[in-house]
């Protein structure tokens, strides 16, 4: 995953040194739509197939989540009020949930029993050699998204909780977990 982080850092560096009159860098955490098809079909294939949230996250790893529309809210605010957001680097997220909490939210929204299940250490070590999504999950265990949720409160933008997002996408949740 080094190429991923290196390219992101290079892009941010290019933006900062570009000479733009105004710039803002938004760094969204894990987007909530990753738990819905078609993304879930790749990211968490057991979720739509078996109603199992199978993950390499540790039981106590809390994933910081964000509604993709909330990225748009921040981008719009930065465009409409460039002086306020100028030279801001904003890590975006609304809440950090463990796999069990994610599974419970998906269960409530879908009406199906979604179970959190965890790869064994041996399975992760073997599978992560060829599966970048597991490598990313291992990264989340060790590093994770570093979002200061309190600092985001200084912005006049209401963020969407995971449960609110799932309720607004209820039909998609039900299709994913049918």
UniProtKB/TrEMBL annotation:
<dbReference type="InterPro" id="IPR036291">
    <property type="entry name" value="NAD(P)-bd_dom_sf"/>
</dbReference>
<dbReference type="InterPro" id="IPR051164">
    <property type="entry name" value="NmrA-like_oxidored"/>
</dbReference>
<dbReference type="InterPro" id="IPR008030">
    <property type="entry name" value="NmrA-like"/>
</dbReference>
<comment type="similarity">
    <text>Belongs to the NmrA-type oxidoreductase family.</text>
</comment>
<dbReference type="GO" id="GO:0016491">
    <property type="term" value="F:oxidoreductase activity"/>
</dbReference>
<dbReference type="GO" id="GO:0005634">
    <property type="term" value="C:nucleus"/>
</dbReference>
<feature type="domain" description="NmrA-like">
    <location>
        <begin position="4"/>
        <end position="166"/>
    </location>
</feature>
<keyword id="KW-0521">NADP</keyword>
<keyword id="KW-0560">Oxidoreductase</keyword>
<dbReference type="Pfam" id="PF05368">
    <property type="entry name" value="NmrA"/>
</dbReference>
<protein>
    <recommendedName>
        <fullName>NmrA-like domain-containing protein</fullName>
    </recommendedName>
</protein>
């Amino acid at each position: 995953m080094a190429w991923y982080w290196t390219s992101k850092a290079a892009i941010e560096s290019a933006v900062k040194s570009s000479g733009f009159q105004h710039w803002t860098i938004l760094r969204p955490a894990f987007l909530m739509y990753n738990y819905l098809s078609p993304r879930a079909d790749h990211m968490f294939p057991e979720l739509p197939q078996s109603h199992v949230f199978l993950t390499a996250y540790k039981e106590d790893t809390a994933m910081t989540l964000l509604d993709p529309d909330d990225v748009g809210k921040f981008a719009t605010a930065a465009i409409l009020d460039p002086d306020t957001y100028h030279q801001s680097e904003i890590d975006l997220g609304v809440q950090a949930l463990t796999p069990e909490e994610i599974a419970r939210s998906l269960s409530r929204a879908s009406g199906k029993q979604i179970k959190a299940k965890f790869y064994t250490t041996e399975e992760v070590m073997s599978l992560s050699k060829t599966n970048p999504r597991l490598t990313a999950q291992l990264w989340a265990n060790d590093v994770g998204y570093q979002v200061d949720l309190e600092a985001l409160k200084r912005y006049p933008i209401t963020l969407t909780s995971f449960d609110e997002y799932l309720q607004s996408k209820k039909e998609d949740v039900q299709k994913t977990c049918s």
